[in-house]
Amino acid sequence: RTTEEGSFFLGRTDCTLPDDFFFYADLYVILPVIYSVICAVGLTGNTAVIYMILKAPKMKTVTNMFILNLAIADDLFTLVLPINIAEHLLHHWPFGEVLCKVILSIDHYNIFSSIYFLTVMSIDRYLVVLATVRSKRMPYRTYRAAKIISLCVWVLVILIVMPFTVFASVYVGAHDGRKRCLLSFPSPESSWFKASRIYTLILGFAIPVSTICILYTTMLYRLRNMRLNSNAKALDKAKKKVTVMVFIVLAVCLFCWTPFHLSTIVALTTDLKTTPLLIGISYFITSLSYANSCLNPFLYAFLDDSFRKAFKKMLECRPA
């Protein structure tokens, strides 16, 4: 969101279309349906994951602690998604300044939280593989340590999102008088807008993705060398499954988020005119990034035996 209208890919949650497209019928009908499905599926799936990890003693592992926090972040986002739907249907923001700051903060928090928790999970997988290759134990890798690290990630992301909270405000349109919840930058507005997109691109994509790529490249290199020099397997079956699950969850996250960050590059390097086609592409990319918040529980169910068993147990109908 930004008060600078007419730019390509204005923002991830720019629910207010430019005036020429206020009654663009297809978007008006389709978007609430898509957002509602994402909200319902994401809220149900992530709440189930949170419930299972907290309730089942066997689910309290280091990896599952990071998955728990990832599910909490996704749940938090899906909880406020109905407000985005309401704004889209009403074509204005009726909820006040405080809620505007809260919603925009949570929305931007979702941009950073997923990739940062996945970065931490990738670091953890790298250390596990490295310890296995060297036949060493990891006494410091405990459930309590995972809790502390997760808390540090929450604090870090809150600090990263703080500038967006400061600039979030209710903006009244000069021409139509409509209230909009968006990022209201000082002059020169275009420079602040570009700075915010570069800030998000670097901290929300370039740094964490580069870190993850280096970790997995190094991990695969070490495993490959070990297979060449030894008949022993680098990982036992359980550790290998967890590593594969983390890798696939990461791949799906990148699939959902890469188009959004690529759109930032387009917004910074081109001056395309806003058209219905570009509006449609922008909302498709937004919906794809939103969808990541409801996909992870299905990945856990398909890729992890303990999650699959816990899901089945939870769905069993037992007589009183």
UniProtKB/TrEMBL annotation:
Localization in the cell: Cell membrane
SUPFAM superfamilies: Family A G protein-coupled receptor-like
A GO term for molecular function: neuropeptide binding
GO CC annotations, alphabetized: neuron projection; plasma membrane
Superkingdom of this protein's organism: Eukaryota
Transmembrane segments: 27-54, 66-85, 111-133, 145-174, 198-221, 242-260, 280-303
InterPro entries from the UniProt entry: GPCR_Rhodpsn, GPCR_Rhodpsn_7TM, Neuropept_B/W_rcpt
Protein keywords: Cell membrane, Disulfide bond, G-protein coupled receptor, Glycoprotein, Membrane, Receptor, Transducer, Transmembrane, Transmembrane helix
Keyword presence, Iron-sulfur: no
Keyword set includes Membrane: yes
Stored PROSITE patterns: G_PROTEIN_RECEP_F1_1, G_PROTEIN_RECEP_F1_2
One Pfam family in the UniProt entry: 7tm_1
Membrane topology, from the record: Multi-pass membrane protein
All copies of domain G-protein coupled receptors family 1 profile, residue ranges: 45-300
Family, similarity comment: Belongs to the G-protein coupled receptor 1 family.
Record-given protein name: G-protein coupled receptors family 1 profile domain-containing protein
Organism: Mola mola
